[in-house]
Amino acid sequence: MATNASGGLLGTLMQELPLEFLNEITNGFSDDRKISEGAFGTVYKEQTRINTINVVGAKGYMAPEYLYSGEISPQCDIYSLGVLILEITTREKNCINDKDMAARNFIIDIRETWTDGHIASKYSSLDADCLQQVKACIEIAFKCVDVAQRSRPSIVDVVDRLYGRRAG
C-alpha cells in the first residue's frame, strides 16, 4: 500500500501537466470534482515553493513549514507521505488534534516505541526478511518526516527505497 501511494505521488510530482489538461479533468477546478486537498506541488509551474497565509489541509499530516509559515513545496507532500507510511506500517492511527497538527507527538511515540524488539513482537508471524522490510519502511518514513525539509528524501528516493532498489 505504501508503495502504491508513493508511486502515485511520484507520477504526480515528476510529470508536467498542461493547464489545459488540468482544466479539462477538473471541470475548471470545480469544487464538485474535488476529491481531496493537498498535493499542490505540480500546480505551480516553474516555482519550487510558494507561501500562503491561508493554511488549510488535513490536520496531522501537514508539514511544519506549511503549518507555521505557509510555505508550500513538494517536500510538504513528502512529509505527509511519511506520516501515512508510519500509519500503514505500524497500524497505529495518528491521533489528530489542534495542538499537534504536524503529528510530532505521533512521530516521537513511534520513534521511541518501534524498536527492533517491538517490531518482532508486533509482527511475530513474519520471517526475518519481512521484519527487515517493516523496519526499512519505518526508517524511510522517519526520513520523510524530518523537520528540516531539505533533509527529506525526494519521491524518487522514497520509491526506490520502498522497492529495495536503493539502501537507506
Automatic annotation (TrEMBL):
InterPro entries, alphabetized: Kinase-like_dom_sf (IPR011009), Prot_kinase_dom (IPR000719)
Short name of one Pfam family: Pkinase
Domain called Protein kinase: residue spans: 1-164
PROSITE patterns membership: PROTEIN_KINASE_DOM
Superkingdom of origin organism: Eukaryota
GO MF term list: ATP binding; protein kinase activity
PANTHER family (alphabetical): CYSTEINE-RICH RECEPTOR-LIKE PROTEIN KINASE 6, S-LOCUS LECTIN KINASE FAMILY PROTEIN
Protein name (database record): Protein kinase domain-containing protein
Organism listed in the record: Dichanthelium oligosanthes
